[in-house]
Amino acid sequence: MSDSKKRDYYEVLGVSRNADIKEIKSAYRRLAFQYHPDRNPGDKEAEEKFKEASEAYDVLSDPQKREMYDRYGHEGLKGTGFHQYSDMDDIFSSFSDIFEDFFGFSSERGRRRHTRGADITQKLDITLQEASTGIEKEIEIERQAVCSNCNGSGSKPGTHPQTCPVCHGRGQVSTRAGFMVISTTCSKCRGEGRIIVEKCEVCSGRGSVAQKRTLKVKIPPGVDTGMQLRLSGEGEVSIRGGRAGDLYLIINVVQDEGLVRDGEDIHSEINISYLEAILGTTVKIKTVWDERDIEIKPGTQPEEKIRIPEAGMPRLNGYGKGDHIVHIKVNIPRKISSEEERLLREIAELNSTKVGKKSRGFFRK
């Protein structure tokens, strides 16, 4: 569904924009129970409402995604690791723990969560300039790959794992209760559905070994520290036939010396002399985009600010940039020459300004 046709997530869950996480979770629990596919078999409309509610909950239950959504709407979620749930198994895989917390049991589909690979979280440092323009970076990750010695079986070559005699290979012992299935992990095989008699000597029965992998990652313009990028399927592989886990990259923007980021705005300081503040001048400053000259107008006051529109960080929704704000610092000298003192005293007399004696204050040498 295109972003323009999507309903407001708060409207989907039926909560106010000020709702806390408890209210959001309660609303999702109600909708998930009402539109659960096991309760509405073959009902496509109920399935779509279930997907819609799950997508809304995924965003509003995550503080970072919720902040981006509140500020920019659906467009703001692009490039933040936001995931649309088009596949029902994907929803059950992602939210299986939540369903168990809500209802005390999992859907029959939920058994597949035992075959999904684990997620990986990794920090990614980028410069402020890279965050402003966006960049494609190569990263190296270490994850579990299928053991080539046993092809992921975990068993010594030439042997085979045995099907668990208790759960008959399902990994769970299930009891049907109405339209749902109450499931518990099989204690005999610990949810594996099989029992390894002789372990593989390479992977010690795990079925996987550590492997280094290089990936190319596109970082969108405007990302900030703490944001997550989700790379679907780039986490740990599954050795039980399920889909791989996801890779979550936690962005850390390394601040540039002299430039301070505040949301989409960039702040910097410049120091000018008191004469430049009085008479005006032109100074060169550095922005995240370039170096440029700015005009200091005559009579500029200490701590005055100059705002340069559209010279800050790009907004993640793709529309416009923040500003660059220059903070003016005026340097007042503690010592001046005799000639400077004479001229300043003449100026003071012209303005009928009383000044201190030579031995005190500004003119002390």
Instruction: Report the span from N to C terminus.
Output: 75 Å
The major pleated sheet works out as: 4 strands, mixed
CATH class category of the largest domain: Mainly Alpha
Major β-sheet strand ordering: 10-11-15-14
Q: Which secondary-structure class do the elements indicate?
A: alpha+beta
Q: Return Rg in Å.
A: 31 Å
List the helices and strands in order. Answer: HHHHHEHEEEEEEEEEEHEEEEH
Give me the CATH fold name of the largest domain: Helix Hairpins
Task: Give short descriptive properties of this protein.
3-stranded mixed sheet; 24% helix; 365 residues; disordered C terminus; HSP40/DNAj peptide-binding domain; 15 strands; Helix Hairpins; alpha+beta; 4 domains; 4-stranded mixed sheet; single chain
Summarize this, please?
By secondary structure, the protein is of the alpha+beta class.
Description:
- This protein is of the alpha+beta class and 365 residues long.
- 24% of the residues lie in helices and 26% in strands.
- The chain folds into four domains: 1-115, Helix Hairpins; 117-148 and 207-254, HSP40/DNAj peptide-binding domain, CATH 2.60.260.20; 256-332, Urease metallochaperone UreE, N-terminal domain (HSP40/DNAj peptide-binding domain); 334-365, no CATH class.
- The strands form six sheets. A four-stranded mixed β-sheet has the order 10-11-15-14. It has a three-stranded mixed β-sheet with strand order 1-9-8. A two-stranded antiparallel sheet has the order 2-7.
- The protein is elongated.
